[in-house]
User: Which sequence fits this backbone?
């Protein structure tokens, strides 16, 4: 299985402020009644984007000037809560290619990486700078450079970081581990043979 | 060198190092349910892959299943479609499926232990964040995403970076009216919802030694709510006694050998930890949440925080957002807050001991007028045992609706949902905005007995007062 080497992601950004944005908020459970991930994109952040009566609330990602944004900016502990891959899938299917936040919940981070959607962290002040730039000019192109570990936008550069194992997997095109895991199957059988509970 | 259980289990299951530095880890036991597995089977088919160890994956249905409708097709065609899908996938790939007809169906984290599938010294994964529950048996149990469900199906392994280990020691005797649920709500209150990021938790100390398996499961279950990926308790005689004679437990000579092996996985005295946290059991009170994440908890006699007492700008914004959503006045007691719904159940507190304890107190009492109270056993086996002991009748006479097994209002993917901004006293594990099925619905997490106290008084109450539990 050959995968793209993801060394950088560029696109317009949109800022969704807040800390502890949990997976229930990213994709409410009722939209998980599905047997494929297709079609989840339109339900991303659904309950924040709509009033209980179903009227749009003017959420940042619905603002006309941010339509087509591919880089999501947010606060701390993004993606906390459940292990549902529906959350990163919904974000990805909504057209996003990468997320910059102060930090991420563990399972969400891993799930996103496996989809080839980099989650990178940056200091709060720096996220605020990028957010200000995209607010001032929604056409601002934001580039997440996973090789230099920096984000560039509107003539400015800020430091970003990412767990090395994820960064390595993305830039070397092995962010989806399945190929490597399959290669390891003979060794898997040897390891399993040493564990009595694995016997058929 | 002395090692922790985490290190021993990790080492025994490490297949090899991957190019990015992660470990290919053997997952001995794989549990699946209907919500996060169909896409994984789809990916498997797309890639033309088979299930590597079909006898090591076990399936059940819990999330979408209606708890007051036994006959199929279900009224909700989407729920029926998911039911059909998991049946089809299990049949096609040769996976054991605890369907309703088996009498063993239930919430996946209740079924595994009940069947003796959850065993010490093993690695377990399930496409569900509360998989940490199984750590109560001294297993390393991970909640995983759907792509990893695919990985485990195809290879019985997944790619993972090692975790640090934090030992959380709770010592002493819990005060009367204080439960395992209060212990974990207290811990999460102390660490915050992301204090456990990057850690596996080892729960220890005399409080845990004295706990039953069900109590240990309640604590391990909510490890994820504090950000920890994994939570476990070292296996001991309590663990072995629970597992003896379960359907999937080893039998005869194999049992003895297994117990010896299981013992060897327990953390060595002198093992080193990346962090240690100590808590005095006597400091823990019945705890309830007031906000929109499980870390926003207070003891029943405290006041809801006020933005003025915030320790940082973030904290302040968090308090304002939570109070606004919860419609609670700042700085006022949580006690006395009117409730609309009482929910007993979930993988945190939907076990036999939970219903037994509640029945003890609600016997002869009535659910307050205007309160909708539902009791949902975590599995068909729990339901059956409750019926044998007459617990279902006690609860029904008190005014609880007694339901069939499932996740129900814990996440409301089935028809059990809050309506509008109803406030629910809930024995479940998450109080996120909209968690219980209404986008303005409100949840207060608490122990089952506290839910019972709220149900009979119609307000958030101190169960020790309501049920005259001596507070010595
Ligand atoms: S009971 Fe709740 S937390 Fe547990 S598996 Fe079901 S939905 Fe998830």
Assistant:
């Amino acid at each position: 299985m050959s995968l793209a080497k993801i060394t950088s992601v560029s696109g317009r950004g949109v800022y969704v402020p807040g800390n502890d944005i949990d997976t229930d908020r990213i994709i409410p459970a009722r939209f998980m009644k599905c047997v494929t991930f297709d079609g989840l994109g339109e339900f991303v952040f659904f309950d924040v984007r709509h009033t209980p009566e179903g009227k749009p609330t003017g959420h940042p990602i619905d603002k006309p000037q941010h339509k087509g944004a591919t880089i999501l900016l947010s606060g701390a502990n993004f993606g906390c809560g459940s292990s549902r891959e529906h959350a990163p899938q919904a974000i990805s299917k909504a057209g996003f290619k990468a997320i910059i936040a102060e930090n991420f919940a563990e399972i969400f981070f891993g799930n996103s990486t496996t989809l080839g959607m980099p989650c990178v962290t940056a200091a709060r002040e720096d996220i605020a700078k990028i957010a200000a730039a995209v607010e001032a000019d929604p056409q601002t192109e934001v580039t997440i450079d996973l090789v230099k570990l920096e984000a560039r936008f509107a003539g400015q550069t800020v430091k970003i970081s990412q767990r090395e194992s994820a960064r390595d997997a993305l830039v070397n095109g092995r962010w989806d581990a399945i190929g490597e895991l399959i290669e390891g199957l003979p060794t898997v059988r040897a390891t399993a043979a040493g564990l009595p509970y694995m016997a058929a | 060198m002395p090692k922790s259980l985490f290190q021993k289990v990790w080492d025994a299951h490490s297949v090899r190092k991957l190019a990015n530095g992660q470990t290919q880890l053997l997952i001995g036991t794989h549990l699946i349910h209907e919500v996060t597995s169909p896409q994984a089977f789809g990916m498997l088919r797309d890639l033309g892959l088979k299930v590597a160890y079909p006898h090591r994956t076990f399936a059940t249905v819990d999330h979408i299943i209606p708890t007051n409708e036994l006959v199929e097709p279900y009224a909700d065609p989407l729920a029926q479609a998911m039911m059909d899908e998991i049946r089809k996938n299990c049949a096609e790939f040769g996976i054991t499926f605890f369907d309703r007809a088996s009498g063993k169906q239930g919430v996946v984290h209740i079924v595994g232990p009940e069947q003796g599938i959850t065993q010490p010294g093993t690695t377990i994964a399930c496409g569900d964040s509360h998989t940490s529950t199984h750590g109560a048996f001294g297993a390393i149990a991970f909640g995983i995403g759907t792509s990893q469900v695919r990985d485990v199906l195809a290879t019985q392994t997944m790619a993972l970076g090692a975790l640090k280990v934090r030992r959380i020691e709770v010592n002493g005797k819990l005060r009367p009216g204080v439960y395992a649920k209060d212990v974990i709500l207290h811990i999460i209150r102390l660490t915050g919802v992301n204090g456990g990021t990057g850690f596996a938790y080892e729960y220890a100390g005399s409080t845990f030694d004295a706990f039953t398996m069900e109590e240990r499961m309640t604590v391990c279950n909510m490890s994820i709510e504090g950000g920890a990926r994994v939570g476990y308790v070292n296996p001991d005689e309590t663990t072995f006694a629970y597992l003896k004679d379960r359907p999937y437990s080893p039998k005869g000579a194999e049992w003895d050998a297994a117990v010896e092996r299981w013992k060897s996985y327990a953390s060595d005295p002198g093992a080193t930890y990346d962090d240690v946290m100590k808590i005095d059991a006597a400091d823990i009170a019945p705890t309830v949440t007031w906000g929109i994440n499980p870390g926003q908890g207070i003891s029943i006699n405290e006041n809801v925080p006020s933005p003025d007492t915030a320790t940082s700008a973030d904290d302040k914004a968090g308090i304002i957002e939570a109070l606004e959503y919860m419609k609670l006045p700042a700085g006022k007691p949580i006690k006395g807050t009117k409730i609309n719904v009482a929910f007993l159940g979930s993988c945190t507190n939907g076990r036999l001991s939970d219903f037994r304890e509640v029945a003890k107190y609600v016997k002869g009492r009535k659910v307050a007028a205007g309160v909708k109270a539902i009791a949902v056993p975590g599995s068909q086996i729990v339901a059956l045992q409750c019926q044998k002991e007459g617990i279902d009748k006690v609860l029904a006479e008190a005014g609880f609706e007694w339901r069939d097994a499932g996740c129900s209002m814990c996440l409301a993917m089935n028809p059990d949902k809050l309506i509008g901004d109803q406030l629910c006293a809930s024995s479940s594990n998450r109080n996120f905005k909209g968690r219980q099925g209404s986008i303005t619905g409100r949840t207060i997490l608490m122990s089952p007995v506290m839910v019972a106290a709220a149900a009979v008084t119609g307000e958030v109450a101190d169960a020790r007062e309501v049920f005259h539990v001596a507070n010595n």
